[in-house]
Amino acid sequence: MAAMSLVLRAAAAWGARRAASGAAGGAHLPWLGGASRLPGTVAPVRHSSSHGKRMFIIKATKFYDTRFLNMLRFYVFLTGIPVAIFITYVNIFIGEAELAEIPEGYIPEYWEYYKHPISRWIARYLLDPPEKNYEKEMAVLHIEAKKTQMRLMESEARRLMRQRGDGPWYHYETPDKNLIDNSMKSTPDN
């Protein structure tokens, strides 16, 4: 849809340039020009109530471009202005944290190490604590170690299957030949 709009817009602009330059007129290519133009006319003329001729120049539409830019500007300002006001308020009235000595027996929380109050809030309420991130990374490493161990065991099992000639296929045990009833073969005419 957007590509078709661009194609139509480009075709209209190209046609307007050709009409303005007189390239479509009968002077250059009389068999392509159609009806001959009056000398001095480069585009259709519109007579309005102002009693004068005004040129009606055909040009590509800019409606969708201006609509997109207007909506983009609106939504950027819709979110940007409140965010800028909030950040300015925090920087002026709260300010950055100051480095101070840790009191005896007090264990600071992990978000208290950040300098800016917005960074502290993000670290406290949105991000995971460093201990949890460490445990998640250790869990991933444990899973990968288990996968490595399983791959080693599978390769060892494949090696032993090739060496011994056995495998995971299903088979039935051969019954004992003493269990076979051969009595009917001893007297075939009965």
Summarize the structure.
With 190 residues, the chain is mainly alpha-helical.
General description of the model:
A two-stranded antiparallel ribbon has the order 1-2. The protein contains 6 helices and 2 strands. About 3% of the residues have low confidence. By secondary structure, the protein is mainly alpha-helical. A hairpin with a 5-residue loop joins strand 1 and strand 2.
Secondary structure layout plus pairing:
Elements: H1 2-21, H2 30-33, E1 45-47, E2 53-55, H3 63-94, H4 117-125, H5 130-164, H6 183-186
Strand order, largest beta sheet: 1-2
User: Which oligomeric state applies?
Assistant: single chain
Strand-pairing-aware structural class: mainly alpha
- The proportion of residues forming helix, as a percent range, comes to 40-55%
Please compute the radius of gyration using only Cα atoms: 43 Å
How many alpha or pi helices?
6
Distance between the termini: 91 Å
List the defining traits of the structure above:
190 residues, mainly alpha, 2 strands, flat
